[in-house]
Amino acid sequence: MDFDEYEYLEKTVEASAAAPANGSDGKERSSRRRSSAGDGEDRDDGERRSKRSRSEHRDRDRDLESRERHRSSRERRDRDVREKERLSRESEREREKERERRSRDRDREREKERERERRSRSRSERRRDDGERERERFRERDFRDRDVRRRKEDGAEPEADPERDQRTVFAFQLSLKADERDVYEFFSRGREG
Q1: Who's near 145: CB < 8 A, 6+ residues apart?
Q2: How would you class 10 by CB atoms within 10 Å of its CB: exposed for 0-12, middle for 13-18, buried for 19 or more?
Q3: Which stretches does the entry tag as region Disordered (predicted)?
């Protein structure tokens, strides 16, 4: 439990205000007994008492005002501190939102970049595959041409059957552009001849 100096001061002032009142009652009784001894002393005592009570009253009022001032300044300070904390929390939340937004933007950009790379890679792979197929066809054609030239030069092979050559060319082109009807005609002609 914290020590509250204002509360302590209030209790002290109330206690000191109550004590003289009780003591003054006792003094009044004793002064009444002694009133026969001298009314002049009573008047002096009364004036002193009234001055004392007035000064105590003033002191009490001053203490109350001082406490009120301290309390209001403390409340103001507390309010200011709470307001600063609230503003700090709000700005922290804003910064956090901004960080998250930037992070999402970066992630989105990375994903777009990956997608672009994927598309670009697939395009280049398709081009490469097409190029490889074309080179393979060229190599096969070149190999056949060289083989035919070599055989012609050797003269070992008799004159080639033109129809057979046509079927060979057709068979090589079969995968490129033949449909079912062409295949049927090709093989039915082969049986006849």
Answers
A1: none
A2: middle
A3: 1-168
